[in-house]
């Protein structure tokens, strides 16, 4: 049997923990039923870093929207595209980041851009006439631009693969896969089981520079050509150079034969 002093210490510890939990619960309960704002807590302080729509001036193009909640459908979709290959395949989308990559797609292949996220800090900060961001922002402000949403920097960071996003990200549609029927006597690169996304993206970029007609990604272990890391390493080449996944060498040989490549 424990001494009375030990029993008292255990009771005091349990009571202290219970009282902390009770104070936090009673502070949040009125807000949950709509009475008043919550008292200061770690959770409320974290949510306070994401501004509400009313915190921003409405002086931005009328066809733009604003997304401020990390629990919004847009934020959840971007996070899903970053982490899940299955999600990228189901939606036919991948996340691209940075002024150069998003700007190149907007200039050359705007139909591939589904949704652009733009940092509110970047948009509202003063910019000189020769600011390198001006061309991209002008194209996004045009009525014919893809869907654009202003987001707080913290939310943009949560929707990007890099640690320090440069201010813009987008969900881009996957281009149509390579069609071998119109590629007679063409240069084709085959990536046989290359699993590293950075290396795969670099080789896709090199193939485009060498004038290749397409890239075949052989085997289930081959890197996802539409993962954010592969797209970043390819520097846009994965959207201009046709790609095609093939399951095995038998399927690969069939594609090559349709391209007019004979087995040596």
Care to describe what's here?
InterPro entries: Alpha/beta_knot_MTases, Ribosomal_eL30-like_sf, rRNA_Methyltransferase, SpoU_MeTrfase, SpoU_subst-bd, tRNA_m1G_MTases_N. GO terms for molecular function: RNA binding; RNA methyltransferase activity. Keywords: Methyltransferase, Signal, Transferase. Residues 1-27 form the signal peptide. With 264 residues, this protein is of the alpha/beta class. Helix content is 44%, strand content 15%. It contains twelve helices and eight strands. It has helices at 4-32, 42-47, 73-83, 85-91, 99-108, 120-124, 134-141, 153-158, 197-209, 228-234, 237-240, 249-258; strands spanning 65-66, 93-97, 113-119, 147-151, 168-173, 188-192, 214-218, 243-246. Helix 3 packs across helix 4 (85-91).
* Secondary-structure-derived class: alpha/beta
Please state the average pLDDT score.
82
Classified in CATH, the superfamily of the largest domain is Ribosomal protein L30/S12
Morphology call: elongated
Helix content class: 40-55%
Number of helices, counting only DSSP H or I runs of 4 residues or more = 12
| CATH class label of the largest domain | Alpha Beta
Number of domains: 2
User: How far is the N terminus from the C terminus?
Assistant: 87 Å
Which secondary structure elements does this structure contain, and how are they paired or packed?
Blueprint: H1 4-32, H2 42-47, E1 65-66, H3 73-83, H4 85-91, E2 93-97, H5 99-108, E3 113-119, H6 120-124, H7 134-141, E4 147-151, H8 153-158, E5 168-173, E6 188-192, H9 197-209, E7 214-218, H10 228-234, H11 237-240, E8 243-246, H12 249-258
Parallel strand pairs: 1-4, 3-4, 6-7, 7-8
Antiparallel strand pairs: 2-5, 3-5
